[in-house]
TrEMBL record:
Residue segments, region Disordered: 436-468
Database matches in SUPFAM superfamilies: Leukotriene A4 hydrolase N-terminal domain (SSF63737), Metalloproteases ('zincins'), catalytic domain (SSF55486)
UniProt biased composition (Gly residues): 458-468
Protein name as it appears in the record: Aminopeptidase N
Source organism: Streptomyces flavochromogenes
Pfam families named among the record's database cross-references: Peptidase_M1, Peptidase_M1_N
Keyword Protease belongs to the record: yes
Signal peptide: none
EC number: 3.4.11.2
GO MF term set: aminopeptidase activity
Length: 468
């Protein structure tokens, strides 16, 4: 892409991201003091210029004080205004050239303002967490803030030793010196900036499931007083993992962690290899179990298979919503057809002004997008029949593992599994605001009509030993 053309990567957020280059690795070294909410950081980015010579490029970073920037070891000219670092290297970068950027910065991190409230770094009563979707990542580190620019990450956090630091990925080292501890995490899988998760708090760490049985390592980081309720509410997560691997293919990352913050959160938040819940999502009665399934499903749909830009957000939310329905169907709850019927009745009473495939920034997190997204996936299931549908779904997650997709990618994929044309059906559900009729199922069910997993009124087991 020519440097003279627009650098905007997303029509919904034109000030975020720069498509003239891509980052393939971030190394973040952070020092955080919870009391004064003080963050000092060094970010090293390894990047590659695009098809045209790069005389300048942009990074997104909130209003920290920038101490120093280096590009390939040399000081560039830069400006930092309005959450954007505009960097002009001392020597233009050749097309396709690899280069490094090092940014030293410090300040008091705070959320990025948005129509949905503050996004990104959130100071808690005792600790902090990051919830960046869609554009909150610059609240705590400099980044090329666009979903399609996926990179590996190493994150080092030094903080007082009383606190536990949790990030998405594998914990490489935990080193204590005097009164502080440095935690180093590695996320080797390609990761979008908004999906880099972090939580700092007073947690007890437990293992979910039986670690001796193999499978995906699953851990939880929970305030001690919430553990009795948590042990029931998340008891069936290992069974969810088993089901989703069966239906969607192998779990796409090395491990999965959940954090329960000791505060209320409006909604849970997915990050790569990590999901964040609030204390209000733990009631001891599995009242939020559908959300446990939803966030886990995002590891396949949204995190591994990532949208090219935010116009396609229904691919994340519709497939995660449908995973809720599949979990309900398999675990002895209501069937997907019953849940689809309920969702359809609800949507029929609401405004018909949502274009699912391009909802616009104002409606991208509207509840109707989630419900209609799930209904669209159900309509595809009804049209294909269960056998072809589940092959399609598994292949979607497998073929595009760690990749970037669009709605057009998905519709072309679906069409390959249909014995009759589905263009009209897909157009009605994705492109037209009016709600199509409720789809009717046909074909033999591929999912047994029996509770193959622990029923809803089962015991509270599922937690392993507490971690040191």
């Amino acid at each position: 892409m020519s440097g003279e053309r627009t650098t905007a990567s997303d029509p919904y957020f034109p000030d975020h991201g720069d498509s003239r280059y891509r980052v393939h690795r971030y190394e973040l070294a952070l020092d955080y003091r919870p009391g004064p909410n003080r963050l000092a950081g060094t970010a090293r980015l390894s990047a590659i210029a695009g098809r045209a010579p790069l005389t300048e490029f942009h990074l997104n970073l909130s209003e920290f004080k920038v101490g120093r920037i280096l590009v390939n070891g040399r000081a560039p000219h830069y400006t930092h205004r309005g959450g954007r670092l505009r960097v002009r290297p001392a020597k233009p970068l050749s097309a396709g050239a690899a280069f490094t950027v090092e940014v030293h910065y410090a300040g008091n991190p705070r959320p990025v303002r948005s129509p949905w409230g503050g996004l990104g770094w959130e100071e808690l009563t005792d600790g902090a967490l990051v919830a960046s979707q869609p554009v909150g990542a610059p609240s705590w580190y400099p980044c090329n803030d666009r979903p399609a620019d996926k990179a590996s990450y190493q994150i080092s956090v030094n903080t007082p030793s009383a606190y536990t630091v949790v990030a998405g990925g594998r914990l490489l080292t935990r080193t204590t010196k005097a009164s502080t501890t440095t935690w180093v995490y590695e996320q080797s899988a390609p990761t979008s900036s908004y999906l880099v998760g972090l939580s700092i708090g007073m947690y007890q760490t437990v293992l979910l499931g039986d670690p001796g049985l193999g499978g995906v390592p699953q851990s939880a980081h929970v305030p001690a007083h919430l553990l009795p309720r948590f042990s029931r509410d998340f008891a069936r997560q290992p069974a969810m993992m088993q089901l989703f691997e069966e239906l969607f293919g192998p779990y796409p990352f090395g491990e999965y962690a959940v954090v329960v913050a000791d505060e209320e959160l409006d909604v849970p938040v997915e990050a790569q290899g990590l999901s964040l819940f609030g204390a209000n999502h733990v009631d001891g009665a599995r009242g939020s179990e559908r959300l446990v399934a939803h966030e886990l499903a995002h590891q396949w749909f949204g995190n591994s298979v990532t949208i090219a830009d935010w116009r396609h957000i229904w691919l994340n939310e519709g497939l995660a919503k449908y995973a809720e329905w599949l979990w309900s169907e398999r675990s002895g709850g209501r069937t997907a057809q019953e849940l689809a019927s309920t969702a359809h009745r609800l949507l029929a009473t609401q405004p018909q002004d949502l274009k699912l495939a391009d909802p616009g920034r104002k409606l991208m997190f509207d509840d109707r997008l989630y419900e209609r997204g799930g209904l669209t996936v159900h309509a595809i299931r009804c049209a294909l029949g269960d056998g072809a549908f589940f092959r399609m779904l598994r292949d979607w997650a497998t073929v595009h593992r760690h990749g970037v997709v669009t709605t057009a990618t998905f519709t072309a994929h679906v069409s390959r599994y249909a014995t009759e044309p589905v263009d009209g059906l897909l157009r009605a559900w994705l492109q037209q605001p009016s709600l199509p009729p409720l789809p009717s199922p046909h074909g033999a069910p591929a999912i047994p009509e029996r509770p193959a997993y622990p029923p809803t009124n089962g015991g509270s087991g599922g937690l392993g030993r507490a971690s040191a």
